[in-house]
Amino acid sequence: MSDLQALYQELLLDHYRKPRNFGALALPTGRAEGHNPLCGDRVVVEVSVADERLVDVAFRGSGCAISTAAASLMSEATKGRPLAEVRELAERFRGALTSEPAGAGETLGKLDALLGVRAYPMRVKCATLAWHALESAIAKGERGGLVSTE
After folding, report:
1. 78: number of Cβ within 10 Å
2. Could you read off the pLDDT of 93-121 as tens digits, one per residue?
3. Of all residues in the chain, what percent carry a pLDDT higher than 70?
4. What is the pTM of this model?
């Protein structure tokens, strides 16, 4: 295992063991639940949006290490950002997991730690579940509803 792979593995384990932004928001403006029926991952994502900015984000649920670490990393990467940037990052992240990276030197920051799941198509759904819920919570507000990987 390369030093970079070991670093990524440690980062993912840290986010799995001590997920950031885990819990519920006091006054969310949006909420969505995500479910991956193939492996049983479940996540609830709550957002607080104001002035076209993702002011706060939290998640809770249960799932595999990849699902939990991905939700934690997602919350760190998006919290406080303008909604346009959040949407663009979500698109880039999903694209990076479902196809080869667009350009050499492009990086997603800490989210790069999840790119190894690209080799395991069933695990891609674990890594993107929270992102689907986030986008639904932002787009649909309190009506967020249930999103699925299927």
Report:
1. 22
2. 999 998 865 555 578 999 999 999 998 98
3. 91
4. 0.91
Residue-range domains of the chain with CATH = 3-148 (3.90.1010.10)
Rounded to the nearest 5°, which phi and psi values hold at 108? Answer: -110, 20
| CA triple 92-96-101, angle to 5 deg | 110
Q: Which residues contact 121 (CB under 8 A, 6 or more apart)?
A: none
Q: What is the pLDDT of residue 144?
A: 64
Q: Contact at 8 Å (CB) between 44 and 32?
A: yes
Phi, psi of 87 (to 5 degrees): -65, -40
Q: pLDDT tier at 38 (50, 70, 90 boundaries)? A: confident
SS (H, E, C) the chain: CCHHHHHHHHHHHHHHHCCCCECCCCCCCEEEEEEECCCCEEEEEEEEEECCEEEEEEEEEECCHHHHHHHHHHHHHHCCCEHHHHHHHHHHHHHHHHCCCCCCCCCCHHHHHHHHHHHCHHHHHHHHHHHHHHHHHHHHHHHCCEEECC
